[in-house]
Amino acid sequence: MPSLFVQIYSLFCISMILNAMIAYYSSLASLRQNEESIISQVAFLAQQSMIEFINGNTTLVESFVKYYGFSRIENMEADAHIVYGYGNNLTLIKIFRYQKNYGFMLEYSGNTYIAQKNFSKEFIGSDANLWILLDFFVLVLTFAIILAILHPMKILRFSLEEFTKGNYNIKVPIPKEPQLALLAKSFNTMTIKISKLIITREFVLRNIGHELKTPLSKAKLALELMPQNPQKSIVIKCIRNLDALVSQILTFEKVQEGEDLLDKKDFFVETLILRVLEASFLQEEDLDLEISTNFKIYGDLDFLAIALKNLVENAKKYKSGGKIRVIAKESERGFILAVSNQGQRLQRDIQEYFEPFYRDKKHELIAGYGLGLSIVSRILELHNMQFMYEYQENQHVFYFLMPKLN
């Protein structure tokens, strides 16, 4: 749906077009009415003048003509348009129009009398035209007032867009209108509170991750030196899980820093897939690799490898059987890099699984922390790529949709 401002501009344009059409047809009707009235006046004067012209009272005809603002002419213009004419063998009356001049020609017994008048003033102004102009003025004024009233809303929308981009210090100027002023104050209060929460969260996550790295490294070293005992394998597994969580927290926090973090270069999709598969330790019988198009990607290889690896690891953990399929191909919409695995349909909307630390209840017994998909989503967002999901034929299909490079 178009934005409010686009709708207002569209409504204004439609109103202007409709007003122009009304003005045009009103003017045509007004001109037609004026012309009919003028022709009636000319015909009436011609009839009265013909009576006196037959009686030979040319002086009285002259007085009629002058009284009504007409002037006698010697000859009718060659390209004058005869509106209509009537008469008999002795008399003939012709009503003619030439540009803005209307007149009549009288013929009787070989004598001719021609007179015309300029009716420009009758065509220039009318009450209808005045009202149409006033309507245009009111419409433009109303449009300007609406835009002035909604201008603070435009500023608020721009501020919201900036806030979503990570500019947490954005502030909205307080307008004079009470309701909008209340809205602007509420927005400013909200940004202060949210920015404090986000900054605090980032600080806590960053410090927790870094602070845990040191004791984990020491614990790993101590385990290497520890003699074998039944509990050692359990401790090793716990430390590996904790290390994986810390790594995911640090990765999640790192991708929040924005596009400036990326080191974009050109590379082929095959390079990306091979790097991920080498680090995933998948067995050949568990993998079905299909690269129908070895297309080129412009992006950060390291971060896109993290995103693809998360999808491969998820497929490995949650598949109910069959092979993990990794597909690279070209489509009408762009290039596609997909990872699919067999499994039951998700219980909730896919967008909920993109939220940090969100996990499905039926997967609680499977190792994981609910950060994988949110990291993938954020990395692809930084690359202006689309992260898509489909469930078809008992298969979960996650794929990157990439624009074709020129």
Indicate the percent of residues in helices: 40-55%
Query: Major sheet: size, sense and barrel closure?
Result: 5 strands, antiparallel
By CATH, the topology of the domain at 259-402 is: Heat Shock Protein 90
CATH class of the domain at 259-402: Alpha Beta
Q: Can you count the helices? A: 10
Describe this structure in words.
- The structure is a single chain.
- This protein is an alpha+beta fold and 406 residues long.
- Among the domains are: 4-124, no CATH class; 259-402, Histidine kinase-like ATPase, C-terminal domain (Heat Shock Protein 90), CATH 3.30.565.
- It contains 10 helices and 12 strands.
- The strands form 3 sheets. It has a 5-stranded antiparallel β-sheet with strand order 1-5-4-3-2, with helices on one face. It has a 5-stranded mixed β-sheet with strand order 7-9-10-12-11. Strands 6-8 form a two-stranded antiparallel sheet.
- A hairpin with a 4-residue loop joins strand 9 (324-330) and strand 10 (335-342).
- It is elongated and about 145 Å long.
- The chain starts with a helix and ends with a strand.
- The mean pLDDT is 79.
Name the features.
single chain, 406 residues, alpha+beta, Heat Shock Protein 90, five-stranded antiparallel β-sheet, five-stranded mixed β-sheet, 10 helices, 12 strands, 19% strand
Helices and strands in order, then pairings?
Blueprint: H1 4-54, H2 58-67, E1 71-73, E2 81-87, E3 91-98, E4 101-108, E5 111-118, H3 120-124, H4 127-164, H5 178-225, H6 232-255, E6 265-268, H7 269-280, E7 287-291, E8 296-299, H8 301-318, E9 324-330, E10 335-342, H9 350-353, H10 372-382, E11 386-392, E12 395-402
Parallel strand pairs: 7-9
Antiparallel strand pairs: 1-5, 2-3, 3-4, 4-5, 6-8, 9-10, 10-12, 11-12
Keywords: Kinase, Membrane, Phosphoprotein, Transferase, Transmembrane, Transmembrane helix, Two-component regulatory system
GO biological process, one term: cellular response to phosphate starvation
Enzyme class: transferase
